Amino acid sequence: MFKAIVIVKRRPSILDPQGMAVEKGAKHLGFNNIKDTRIGKYVEFTVDTKVKSAAEKEVSEYCGKLLINPNLEDYEYTLEEII
Amino acid sequence: MKPKFGVVVFPGSNCDHDAYYALKKILGLDVTFLWHKDTDLQNCDVIVLPGGFSYGDYLRTGAIARFSPIMNSVIEFSQNGGRLIGICNGFQILLEAQLLPGVLLKNKSLQFVCKDVYLSVENNDTFFTKGLSRNEVLKFPIAHGEGNYFADDVTLKSLVENNQIVFKYTSVDGVTDNDANPNGSILNIAGIVNKEGNVLGLMPHPERACNPVLGKNDGSLVFNAIVKNFMN
Hints:
The complex is a heterodimer of chains A (83) and B (232).
Chain A: E1 2-10, H1 17-28, E2 41-47, H2 52-67, E3 73-81
Chain B: E1 4-9, H1 16-26, E2 30-35, E3 46-49, H2 69-79, E4 83-87, H3 89-96, E5 103-105, E6 113-121, E7 137-144, E8 148-150, H4 153-161, E9 165-170, E10 189-193, E11 199-202, H5 218-231
Parallel strand pairs in B: 1-2, 1-3, 3-4, 4-11
Antiparallel strand pairs in B: 5-8, 6-7, 6-9, 9-10, 10-11
């Protein structure tokens, strides 16, 4: 079995109003060095297979079909074998 | 014969009854609800994906509704030329299902905006708008947090070239500018059709503007146009 951790990021060309609003909050708190705040998503799950290549294929398909909208987002993931 | 309308009910839809009420009780049309777990479209001629918060807007707006059993039938229906309207959350579902191009981002203000807006009819040569005048200004309410339409330059160019932009946010006088844009939508886009012209998505709510007693009746102009165009 594998544990997958997926990070979903908004594509660089897409405006992130949420990140901008959070950064405004940072400025109010005096964090003047904080820049380029972008907010994404963290998704974790397990993949019930013993074969790493099969797990990779399934994670990619899951990301592409449901977890991300390719018009808007990119993703990266890590896979770790667990017992 | 007048068309039969079907209103899809997803868990979390909350404008399904508004659409049903407007079509059935005010406009006197044949309407039925279509449950998201069903696959039978019950011989409906026009399908409405209503507004609301299907599946709690989890993951992304419209992302999970798009995989409901009924959506396989709806997608097949539209690919065979069936007429389909997505209103608000319904528009978000159409984009997730890739029946229309582009995405809807959070409103530029980050606030949920609930108010009446004015729209101009940019294309009056569609199944949904034939019979209205070009540049006619309509008053519909909006109620959304993610209605900020965005598409990349290539998609946008293709939308313009194929005359797929149907409604734009304007002032009461029909002026398209930033002041009239409630959510930051690119080019003030409020509604678009697909290239084939049988799928319409829009953020404003025509079904909430069908009862003169409530002070707005422009939605019925659109639904009556649909009925008339279907019968022709």
